[in-house]
Amino acid sequence: MSAKILLSEELGLGGHQRLLVAFSGGLDSTVLLHCLASLRDTRKLTVRAVHIHHGLSQYADKWAIHCQQVCKQWEIPLTVQKVTLNAEGKGIEAAAREARYAVFADMLAADETLVTAHHQDDQCETLLLALKRGSGPAGLSAMPKQRSFAAGWLLRPLLPYRRQQLEAYAARYQLRWVEDDSNQQQIYDRNFLRLEVLPLLEQRWPYFTATAARSAELCAEQESLLDELLKETLDGLITPQNSLPVAPLEAMSPLRRHGLLRRWLAYCGAPMPSRAVLDKLWQEVALSREDANPRIVLGSGELRRYHQQLWWVRVFPSQRQQQLTWPDLRQPLCLPAGLGQLMSAPQGIRLPLPRPDEQVNVRFTATGNLHICGRERGRTLKKLWQESGIPPWQRETTPILFYGQQPVCAPGVFVTRFADSTGLAEDGCWHLVWRKPERAGQ
Asked: Which residue has the higher pLDDT, 189 or 233?
């Protein structure tokens, strides 16, 4: 394949025109960025790039400088983002990938497409790694060319091309790139496959990489067919809170149930579970005794059961000991642990303005009986959470507004009689809004 073909319509951008390019500075992403820069005018593209500085290599600073120089030369805006890795329980490779994609998700605008430089050799490696893990058709589908991601889309336009084709393109245009020294370290599974296994396989079967990629495409087609066949059933089961009722699943065959559970978890944004995890989810969570509080960690969240429904939730740390002062209601109050913001707004929960001598503060627990508007008898906070259907994992992360020592409200749950604004003029009131983060299981 010539460089000319790579720069043609075959690059496969479709209707994607506003692009955020993941630019490591290596061969693959350099070729991709050069292609897009060359197509910018004819295809009316808007291109910007992001370089993730993992800090793992002694050359990391030099790589960032190289990327800045390349983007300056090609007149492409670049953001260099440093990340801190948390490899506990997952390994460096997985932690680095998780950190990268978290940055990509934060940066991607609603009308943008994240573009990565994965090619056919990467696809073959991904398929082999999925085989090693014992993955089913979803895992063996490897990497799709296009999928929804964060606020926009993720596109891999180089998937049809081999690495040597990218090398030929780079040579033709005399491109410069950096070499990651970790690429030669065979302690990483992907490097072992690239350096030892695939050369041996291709020596015996020269078209192994291409046929493996075709197998991944066929698995993806089967998964797409299953998606279509199960979509109507799944749409009828998922609640507005993204939970899944247990009872209808009990009447299904294990195969159909597993298929629905996988697609429900994908819908929630959870990682694809293994068969062992699915079995454990059903036996130890869905079918556990009524008074149990079972949970299974899956990715960045937990699988739970509550009110005879399955939930995948991102659990925030308890804020029971926290107390925040809100000195100026005209300014938003940022809650701890990424729980969002409380703010005054034109519409929201209508509350009386505090007296000048009443300090406004926020806590995450309250003692004694609370007397709620519209109720004759007082209730403990635990009872109110239960009656309002607030699941256990949200009870110590839901803010409670206080005027001095008097509880006023829990946004979206209750307002106390102390804060009843009935009959008050509008100039004696204000409106409270809790702007929550995106949370699974809500």
From this structure: 233
Residue 286 has pLDDT above 70, yes or no: yes
Q: Which residues contact 276 (CB under 8 A, 6 or more apart)?
A: none
Asked if 118 and 156 touch (Cβ cutoff 8 Å), the reply is yes
d(CA 10, CA 62): 34
pTM above 0.85?
Answer: no
Q: Is the pLDDT of residue 2 over 70?
A: no
Give me the long-range contacts of 73-78 (CB less than 8 A, separation at least 24).
74/33, 74/34, 74/37, 75/37, 76/21, 76/33, 76/37, 76/47, 76/48, 76/49, 77/48, 77/49, 78/23, 78/48, 78/49, 78/50, 78/51
**Banded pLDDT at 440 (limits 50, 70, 90):** very low
Q: How far apart are the first and last CA of the chain?
A: 50
| Burial of 203: CB neighbours in 10 Å, binned 0-12, 13-18, 19+ | exposed
Q: Which helix (H) or strand (E) holds 288?
A: none
Distance CA 280, CA 288 (A): 11
Residue type, 42: T
Q: Which two tokens stand for residue 251?
A: 């009447």
**Residue 88's pLDDT is what?**
65
Are 317 and 337 spatial neighbours (Cβ–Cβ below 8 Å)?
yes
Residue with tokens 């990327």: 67
At 197, list the tokens. Answer: 């296994």
The three-state secondary structure class of 301 is: strand
- 390 φ/ψ angles, rounded to the nearest 5 degrees: -80, 120
Cβ-count burial of 394 within 10 angstroms (0-12 exposed, 13-18 middle, 19+ buried)?
Answer: middle
Identity at 26, one-letter amino acid code = G
